[in-house]
Recover the amino acids of this structure.
């Protein structure tokens, strides 16, 4: 039977386990990436493994999130990361060099290889046939040490692309169409694999845009074939030597197939405040707008920015609108500066920001109260922009610029003839801001600022778990709700005690205080609990405040793995209706939890406040059970290490 491309690459990288949907498989990881906001904890944990040098083919540490430097904290983190990289054999992409996913695509991604990144949009590299996963920092640390990446073997959703995109419709509209059809839960448990004639008409930055936002579908990853177009892009990057042609077998079968005729798509937009709240732009056209932001790892490529500049040439941003642009990489930034496009953007009134994540992660540019913000980004979870009650829309660069010109949400097809841009023959080779590791690591001193605090190791799971339901939340709670980002909080990522004081504060500002006063307890979640980012802080910080278990209707993949890694028990109701019965403030007891976990996957929780019991399931592999019993992955690894 013919195999999908994803399964071929997984088979080549399988080191243990079974490649069968739902079963655990362990994959060899060729490359890793980290970014600064999740990298500090990843490296602090790597350090505890006692491995002198990374054992991957390539590991890169990027600095792209915490660039505001409103205090000493982030600058200290940057220095720590740079010295750590030099010492342990990791390439260091300096602050200002660009967003990890964009730079990785340009300079390092390789078709057919595996990549593990401590950021949920790592699958962007799937745009060039790489099998790339987002994971918590601890999983990335283990991969840097040469350990495999364990995951539940996903099913494969084949997306059959036919036709060609009409004028004014672009890659973002393809992935918004996927989100419209499938929702933010629709990709859970799947790798999304694109195939068919329509693929050929999409350049690599377009494929990367689509693969990037597979994260918003909840998918394990997304992948495109590697073809002539991939070669063209790699050649333009001066990296044609890493090209290999890759595709699914011609008779490949997929677990499910959906059809998209590119020719039938129209400009789409995700309305506040979820990436799957998608409608055609024409349905919300005319809505007055206060802000337009171009950038993020989804839409900040050379082609994107050239389109934006071309549309704005000779025009001025509408007086009501504040428009920003953050280039995806310094390569892109340099090129638009040299060819004059940057001057067109500046002349049109665009506020040019640094190459990095910027407003996408709430680092500045919070929109005004009740002001609509239209962004080319990938996430619009409530409050992520930094403004409470924000109204963030997500769309293509074409729609964003049409909107910036008119001051109201505008279907770009109203602008007449579309702008034509094409891939350059040669991208500017700019690796001078990527520092290779030191030749003599013994000479490198690791520099730690006062903001970098050690991560305490948790105790093993006790025999009985008891405590109060500290918080009950609804469906689709994102990691932005659990451990928010933004300019005030992100600089605290390497200081767990300080960071934990922000846990759930966007949902209930009293949460950290109550959790401390009660000595920890339980969280009740709805469906898709923990969707969004890969930040392990969304497991670490609640655990630090004493959260013992999360009982939810279902979990997002990366967050589920992060809870296990830090010894927080993820439990799922066997009867969905029990979600309604448990209430915030109820006292719960899980007796003999260690024995129950070892016995099987279902057990009983007693609600002593209401005098009732509910049944829950723990969907863990036997390896994960041992990790939770040990109190987390680091404890587990230590217990496995041969004693001297
Ligand atoms: C995000 O887009 O939410 C982030 C910030 O890039 C996160 C990573 C983090 O929180 O450190 C992600 O996507 O994983
Ligand atoms: Fe950065 Fe935004 Fe991409 Fe996250 S989604 S990596 S914050 S640009």
């Amino acid at each position: 039977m013919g195999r999908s491309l994803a399964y071929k690459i997984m088979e080549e990288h399988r080191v243990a386990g079974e490649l069968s949907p739902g079963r655990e498989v362990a994959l060899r990881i060729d490359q890793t990436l980290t970014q600064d906001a999740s990298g500090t904890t990843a490296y602090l944990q790597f350090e505890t493994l006692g491995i002198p040098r990374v054992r991957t083919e390539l590991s890169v540490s990027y600095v792209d999130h915490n660039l505001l430097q409103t205090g000493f904290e982030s600058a200290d983190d940057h220095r720590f990361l740079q010295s750590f990289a030099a010492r342990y054999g990791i390439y260091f992409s300096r602050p200002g060099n660009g967003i990890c996913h964009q730079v990785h695509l340009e300079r390092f991604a390789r078709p057919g290889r595996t990549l593990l990144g401590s950021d949920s949009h790592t699958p962007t590299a799937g745009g060039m046939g790489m099998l790339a996963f987002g994971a918590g920092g601890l999983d990335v640390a283990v991969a840097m040490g040469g350990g495999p990446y364990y995951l539940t073997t996903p099913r494969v959703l084949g997306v059959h692309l036919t036709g060609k995109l009409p004028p004014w419709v672009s890659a973002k509209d393809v992935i918004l169409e996927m989100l419209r059809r499938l929702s933010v839960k629709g990709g859970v448990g799947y790798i999304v694999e694109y195939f068919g004639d329509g693929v050929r008409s999409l350049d690599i930055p377009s494929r990367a845009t689509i693969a990037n936002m597979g994260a918003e579908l909840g998918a394990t990853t997304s992948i495109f074939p590697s073809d002539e177009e991939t070669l063209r892009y790699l050649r333009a990057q001066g990296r044609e030597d890493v090209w290999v042609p890759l595709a699914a077998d011609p008779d490949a079968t997929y677990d499910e197939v959906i059809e998209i005729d590119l020719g039938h798509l129209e400009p789409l937009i995700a309305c506040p405040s979820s990436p799957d709240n998608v409608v055609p732009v024409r349905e919300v056209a005319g809505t007055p707008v206060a802000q337009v932001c171009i950038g993020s790892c989804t839409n900040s490529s050379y082609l994107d920015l050239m389109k934006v500049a071309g549309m704005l040439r000779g025009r001025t941003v509408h007086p009501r609108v504040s428009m920003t642009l953050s280039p995806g990489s310094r390569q892109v930034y340099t090129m638009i500066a040299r060819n004059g496009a940057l001057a067109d953007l500046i002349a049109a009134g665009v506020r040019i920001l640094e190459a990095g994540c910027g407003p996408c992660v709430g680092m500045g540019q919070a929109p005004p109260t009740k002001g609509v913000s239209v962004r080319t980004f990938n996430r619009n979870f409530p409050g992520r922009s930094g403004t409470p009650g924000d109204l963030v829309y997500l769309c293509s660069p074409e729609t964003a610029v049409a909107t910036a010109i008119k001051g109201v949400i505008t279907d770009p097809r109203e602008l007449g003839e579309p702008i034509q841009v094409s891939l350059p023959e040669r991208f500017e080779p700019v690796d001078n801001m990527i520092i290779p590791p030191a030749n003599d690591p013994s000479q490198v001193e690791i520099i730690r600022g006062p903001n970098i605090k050690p991560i305490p190791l948790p105790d093993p799971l006790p025999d009985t778990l008891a405590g109060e339901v500290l918080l009950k939340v609804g469906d689709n709670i994102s990691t932005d709700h659990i451990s928010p980002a933004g300019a005030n909080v992100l600089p605290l990522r390497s200081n767990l005690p300080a960071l934990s004081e922000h846990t759930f504060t966007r949902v209930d500002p009293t949460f950290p205080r109550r959790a401390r006063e009660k000595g920890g307890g339980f969280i009740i979640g709805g469906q898709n609990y923990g969707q969004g980012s890969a930040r392990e802080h969304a497991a670490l910080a609640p655990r630090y405040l004493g959260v013992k278990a999360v009982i939810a209707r279902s979990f997002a993949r990366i967050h589920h793995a992060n809870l296990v890694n830090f010894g927080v028990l993820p439990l799922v109701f066997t009867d969905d209706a029990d979600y309604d019965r448990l209430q915030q403030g109820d006292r719960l007891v899980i007796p003999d939890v260690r024995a129950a976990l070892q016995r099987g996957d279902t057990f009983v929780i007693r609600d002593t406040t209401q005098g009732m019991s509910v049944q829950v399931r723990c969907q863990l592999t036997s390896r994960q059970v041992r990790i939770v019993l040990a109190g987390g992955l680091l404890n587990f690894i230590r217990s496995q290490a041969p004693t001297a």
